[in-house]
Amino acid sequence: ASTAATSVSISGDISSQLHGGYSHPLARSWQAERQLTKSMLIYPLFISDQPDEESLIPSLPGQYRFGLNRLVDFLTPLVAKGLKSVILFGVPIAPGAKDALGTAADDPQGPVIQSIRLLRRTFPDLFIVADVCLCEYTSHGHCGILRDDGSLNNSLSVDRISDVAMAYADAGAHCVAPSDMNDGRIRAIKLKLIEAGIAHQVVLMSYAAKFSGCLYGPFRDAAGSSPSFGDRRCYQLPPGGRGLARRAIVRDINEGADVIMVKPASQYLDIISDAKELGKDLPVAAYQVSGEYAMIHAAAKAGVFDLKAMAFESTEGILRAGATIVISYFTPEFLDWLSN
Ligand code: PBG
Ligand code: ZN
Q1: d(CA 138, CA 17)
Q2: Check: complex ipTM more than 0.95
Q3: What's the 25 CA to ligand 2 centre distance in angstroms?
Q4: Per mean pLDDT, which range of 32-36, 44-48, 66-70, 321-325 is the poorest?
Q5: What pLDDT score was predicted for residue 330?
Q6: Does residue 210 have an active-site annotation?
């Protein structure tokens, strides 16, 4: 029997023999350039200005909107399981909280600044990212300050957004992440951070390649941030715009971004891979957005696939494309599913 086996392997073509290389689970894990670990995950949190609020978001299965008084109880078990980072979105609900300038965005008593302080105090090892935008706080729901004709006033918007970023950094955010897509905001924020003497201790994460489209609906339900007229197509990128995304990525690297983000994730894997190539010396983040998450839940509920299997498969695809950071609504579940 041993001579037969030897003669087959010597005379046959052995270049086709791949199975041996991934027959064992550990050997399969070696095939990936990057393994998903807990430290790659950032968990989005919606924080309302109603201190005792704890309400399920209907279009975002299993996700809640919390008031300040509910945050610590919710996060304590997650931190114990290895949660490393959260990204905060403020949700002003109080009547009259919104105006044309998004004044509430950097209200020192508002939910974002208050929760940055609370989380820094309560969870000293938790990395706090603050999303920076005006759409949750403006009466018109757009991501900046508007001209009379309804178009964005880019320079007023950049002034305002960089002030908001500074307020979050001053309150103790480890990272500020502008998601507004106004031109030149990365440079403006970096300059203000330098001027204030805190540029060396704040990560500037740019939503550099953020595409417009239909995948943000559940987020806008959760945050109450749908535009009251028009859409975001004049500032978020057109879905076919790969070259434009590359220009935005290069621009934001040159303006001082420390991390480049691509969003949504699974529909834009080529852009993630472009970001990795253009920003090969930077971490690349990918945001698996609300619509992607809701879609996976809906399909799992319809019996198309198993939820956990697709949570892994979609996230592994995002890593394979080149991401080193994943912003994911599945984070609490991954903390249970992953061992490191
Ligand atoms: C706000 C913002 C949005 C998201 C992150 N920051 C919504 C939007 O641009 O309308 C989307 C996140 C998600 O859908 O999960 N500028
Ligand atoms: Zn916005």
Answers
A1: 60
A2: yes
A3: 42
A4: 32-36
A5: 98
A6: yes
CB 168 within 8 A of CB 112: yes
Residue 235, ligand 1, Cβ within 6 A: no
Residue 336: which residues within 8 A CB-CB, separation 6 or more?
81
Q: Of 84, 98, 263, 276, which residue is the catalytic one?
A: 263
**Alpha carbon nearest to ligand 1 atom 8, residue:** 216
Asked whether the predicted pLDDT for residue 39 surpasses 60, the reply is yes
Which two structure tokens, joined as six digits, stand for 222? 């959760």
Three-state DSSP state, 228? coil
Q: Which of 84, 210, 276, 301 is catalytic?
A: 210
Is pLDDT at 105 greater than 50 in this prediction? yes
pLDDT class of 1 with cuts at 50, 70, 90: very low
Residue 286's DSSP bridge partners are 262, 326
At a CB cut-off of 8 Å and minimum separation 6, what does 6 contact?
none
Beta strand segments in the chain, E: 41-48, 54-56, 64-66, 85-91, 127-132, 175-178, 203-210, 259-263, 284-288, 325-328
- What confidence tens digit (pLDDT) does each residue in 265-302 have? 999 999 999 999 999 999 999 999 999 999 999 999 99
User: Whole-angstrom Cα distance, residue 291 to residue 164?
Assistant: 27
> Residues in the chain, how many?
340
Structure tokens at 106: 């950097």
d(CA 270, CA 266): 9
pLDDT in tens, 51-61: 999 999 999 99
Give the integer Cα–Cα distance in Å for 75 and 66. Answer: 11
Question: What tokens appear for 274 in the block?
Answer: 């472009």
Asked if the peptide bond before residue 264 counts as cis, ω within 30 degrees of 0, the response is yes
DSSP string covering 34-89, please? S---GGGEEEEEEEESSTT-EEE-TTSTT-EEE-HHHHHHHHHHHHHTT--EEEEE
pTM: 0.95
Which two structure tokens, joined as six digits, stand for 62?
Answer: 């299993």
